[in-house]
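During the reporting period the student researcher (J.K.) took over the structure-prediction task from the postdoctoral fellow and processed the backlog of single-chain submissions. One of the processed entries is reproduced below for the supervisory committee.
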Amino acid sequence: MVWDKKDISQETVKSIAVRYDCDFLTASILVRRELTDGSDIQYFLEDDPRYLRNPFELPDMEDAVDRILAAQEEGEKVLVFGDRDADGITGTALLTGYLRSMGMDVSWRLPVGDEPYGLSIQAVEEFVQASGSLIITVDCGISCIAEVEKANELGVDVIITDHHAPRDTTPEALAIVNPKLADSAYGFQDLSGCAVAYKLVSALRFAQKSETYGHSICLLNVRPSNDAFVIEMARMRNLVIVKRLTETVIPGMVSITETRLPAFLEGQQIFTWDAPLQKKMLSKIFGNSIEIYMLDMAEEIGKEIPQTAGKSLLRVRELSRLAKYSDAAPEELDVFINLFTTFVRRREKFFTDEDRVDLQLAALGTIADIMPLRDENRIIVRSGAASLQEKSRPGLQDLLFKLGLAGRRFGAGEISWQLCPVINAAGRMGSPEKAVALLLSEDPKERNTLAEAIIAMNDERKKLGGDMRAVVEPRARESLAEFDGKMVLAYGEDIVRGITGLMANRMADLFNVPAMIISFSETVATGSLRSARGFNVRSLMESFADLCIDWGGHNFAAGFSMERSNWDVFLDRLKNMARIIELKEEDNEEILMVDAELPPPYLTPEILKLVDRFEPYGEKNDRLVFMSRGLRVADITFMGKPEVKHVKLTLDTGKHKWPAVYWQAAGKVKQEFDLEDRVDLVYTVERNWFNGIDTTQLKIIDLRRSDEAAI
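J.K. obtained the following structure tokens:
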């Protein structure tokens, strides 16, 4: 292994440490991970939910909210239709639960057994027969063109909430709430399906609480600039900036009617900061006859946010945490916008305990669907995981108790390895409805029964996965040559449909090439495709769109179904496509990217604060990797039953002695290191929960005698 600690500019590190008020070690890790923009850094340094993006920035959000509120008022029947995986299950439960809390007549449905992915025409027709009039999809729907068309024909409105990439043509739905739409102005594309459902719920909460919902308002600020004045205005709707206008005017040179101000301000409720001063400057610009009716927000905001009371916008800018993350110096109007947004959210209690409970599900969906842990996903997962540990919602509490996670500290890793697979198992075994029922049930006895059933399904899934690997792996290995070593394929009637995704993951990891696993029923072939070495599997699936009943997914994971009658054509085309697959080349020698070197005196328990700050770890945010030199091996203990394979070390830093585990290293003792040796090592810092005790330990990735280490 090569240990690579990237060289970085110390000036850049110092600049980030000073600007964002963090220590130099944190700043150096941010720089080494190429996180130097304020818009990226804020999501690593801040936890406050006010940094979550405004749900009304998502396309069609207000249309979706208006339609749901109309359904509530008219007492309409609503169907929430979700996907069968953990992301769809959590999203379905989240949205259904909230709509029911609004007093709405809501049912829910997911594909069960061998039903295909996504909204089905059968589901639409059965809902119409039950006198339903509004369908809301969760984690699906963006590819359901025919199904939405059928709903339209039958007089049923469809709201699609999804996060999968759309095709060239999208359904003719009443509203499509999806950050990946081509015309989406949303600042972050990689929300999970459940997180999109959470955004819809957040928007509904705002609409029900806020006096400003659906109203267009204007924030106005005038400031001097040399011999002129700058008039800045922002038109907002649901706290989203719809349009901005800046006019620079020299006093006495033009009348107000010769500017763009009247047209911009017409019909708007106008808010300003320090109205007497603003009116004085406007009079100086346009004369004393000018009269613009403005509401002064300074005093009211000062009551809600005391640190702003009596201060100018320039002075408030110096105090603003939001402002410091702007890559450009914020203008006074930007400060006013941030203040007004924070004020409205605080006054109307925009983020409540109910939101924190909902974030438990959004966090699970984000982790289960392997969304990048960047941008607002970090706050979704951090807040959701914290809420899950403080007071988990019914259903999840039952699972945590049975999994031994209740009452202990855990992070995204434990959620990913232990909780998400259990919820996913229900869908993989054809019974996702049991997981949704568990998350929605108010009966403790029913929840206990459902939780036991779901855990039993997970145990069955594990066994089935072991058995199925023996079937899939030889076929995948044999196919490698057939596809020029660029992908593997396994298919057959004996492959269980519910675990094709699991098998595709394992085969992609095993062979380090894209893997496609397909299950045959009597008339339909259903498959999963997983990426390796940076290959975009979605682009491959686009080549087969004409053969598929349905397909969808992300750049690194996709699924599809097709009529078996298309199989021969599909296989021939796949073989031809394999010739042009390009995979990233990989170095023969593994490179370990080191985030920071910790001299022995710095390797203290305080390092956990830094490790926790960079949580959650997962997709696009690997665990922090440290390097230290010259640590003394104070003790060696062998581990493993029945065969000794691993070692536990005690490493002496001088001030502290650290327990450390080194997996698969028993054979290295006395060969590569021994008791009392001084060693250099690359490692992560982790918590270990055992027998009810939470301890901190080092997890060694690579280790060498100090005189042998090479960087």
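The committee noted the following: Residues 444-482 form the longest helix (39 residues).
J.K. will present the remaining backlog at the next meeting.
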